[in-house]
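INTERNAL AUDIT FORM
Audit reference: QA-55
Scope: verify that the stored structure record matches its stored sequence.
Auditor: D.O.
Record contents follow.
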Amino acid sequence: MGAAHKQVSSRLMEMVGPSGLPPTLPTPPELLEALSRSMDALISLDWFQAETGLYPTSLLFDAPWLDWASRYPLIWLDMPSIWNRRSQRNVRDLPALAKTGIFPEYYLQNFHHQTDGYLSDHSANLYDLQVEILFNGTADPMRRRLLAPLLRGLKAFVGRPASRIRVLDLATGTGRTLRQIRGALPKAQLVGLDLSSAYLRQANKWLSQLPGELPQLVQGNAEATLFGSGTFQAITCVFLFHELPVEARQQVIKEAFRLLEPGGVMVLADSVQLADSPQFSPVMENFRRIFHEPYYRHYITDDIVAKLREGGFEEISAESHFMTRVWSARKPA
């Protein structure tokens, strides 16, 4: 695993941008070792939970690497436009769709400097591969950290038929999280919500390959959905909060509370923060410097537990795995 750890450390810590951009912080050897140990622990836990039956071992090999390999050249072809946007600090280089008025203002940016932001099929086709390259193949293992608290939370409905359990994934993107949930809850009713119709089209492609009922995919804003109150037993949300301004984070929590049935569980997964992972502070700082993440600096100092309590949740717990922090909270019964 040593070579793999060096690769992921390089991607996380030492990406080189065009001249004039903020320099990245240096990578001390002890930080590389901490990243290696943390990555080892993530992979070991992922295998252990699969082998003990928490979710199928097939999820460990679920990534469509052959498909992604065919898209890999497109990433290199896309690099010049990314460098141009970074060097020019152009973060509003978006397609005409952005002018339709259906998106919140904070959403209309080139997050990560990626082409078209989240508003095109081109962006959706490359997103998963870009994330896996950044994290050296650990994005899905980090997403799977929500499965254990999700399954624990659903024990409140143990007497209910599995087919009557409804799980909503907010900001579902290309559906990678829904694939993980489907593996652990094959009979549950799954719903994915996202602002981007392009990303939902990509999600439909991935999810239609799975056996069983196709998850329902809905275009909408996680701050204000059209679902009825108390209609879900569980809500998940992965890698969304660090891309939201503070007011929107609280509104998403408020909306999730409304949508949950009493006793239901919300499981939130996102980047680690300074309070729980201070040893990785250079990684967090470099992430902010390398990518366009306008709300990340505030996010890594935000008190998510306090926000969940303010939103009405109780039984709040949190744990960290490699570069991911996972919170679990219950709506009072």
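Auditor finding: record pair retrieved intact. The chain has twelve helices and seven strands.
Action required: none
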